[in-house]
Amino acid sequence: MGHFGLAKHPLYHTMVLPRLKSGDSLLDLGACLGQDLRKCVFDGAPPDRLYASDLFVEYEDLSYELWRDRDTFPNRFLADDVLSDNDSFMQGNLMMNLGPGQTDMIVINMFLHLFDYSNQLKVATRILRLLSHKPGSIILGSQAGVVEPIEQLLKPPFDKTEDGRKRTIFRHSPESFTQMWEDAGKAAGVPLRPITCEFQKPEATEASAAGVDTGLEAEEKKPFTADDLFSKEPLTRPKILLQSAPETGRLHFSVVRS
Ligand SMILES: C[S@@+](CC[C@H](N)C(=O)[O-])C[C@H]1O[C@@H](n2cnc3c(N)ncnc32)[C@H](O)[C@@H]1O
């Protein structure tokens, strides 16, 4: 259970686990099969105030099948679409069942980098609205990062939205990520402490990782990396992240309410 994303965050042992053990709530947004929440329980956190949310309602049952903990892990799966229109989001599972201003810690691991800039800003603002009003409430996680921020077109067949528009995703530098959250804080009316966002320290990187793991299956034997998703058009740099391209890596971040 040592290799899940949240446990690699610098604040996992020093802040997340102690606060969970003292009763804080935590929402894992884009939780997939709930692996990070199971890791928290494995490390001694009480399960009662852990919430998972994802676009796909099927993950709820699948995660119980995978972890075989239907009888012990409370049902706190709130399927929702963070990109839905405003009315749907305000009446959706997260806002109705968790509620605005309620959650002490929100984890977004390998999540925001799925979206283009305007959608990232929209989702960041929504996340801030879910965050507890208590000073010290925190949003934290990790995602793929670059030194030079770029709105990047994806490769076919990922390059089109369902309605046929070009699909891009915004790849952040620490600076652009920080700026986006400052803008989101202003838009949501949430005061923030100085934002922390930095590349994962090289010594903490797994020796075997040939890139930022996107979680997708590889067709070949080599690991599937974020670069395998991108259109080659504007790019001339090496294909593999981390090992041969020092301008890319995993960002760890925390956004704290003041
Ligand atoms: C790359 S996975 C990250 C999973 C997990 N957090 C981790 O670190 O391994 C991104 C997750 O975001 C979810 N997702 C994608 N678009 C979403 C949306 N619009 N609303 C909610 N969840 C979404 C996906 O279903 C997927 O489970």
UniProtKB/TrEMBL annotation:
Gene3D superfamilies membership: Vaccinia Virus protein VP39
Source superkingdom: Eukaryota
InterPro entries: Meroterpenoid_MTases, SAM-dependent_MTases_sf
PANTHER family to which the protein is assigned, alphabetical: METHYLTRANSFERASE AUSD, METHYLTRANSFERASE DOMAIN-CONTAINING PROTEIN
Designated name of the protein: Uncharacterized protein
Organism per entry: Lepraria neglecta
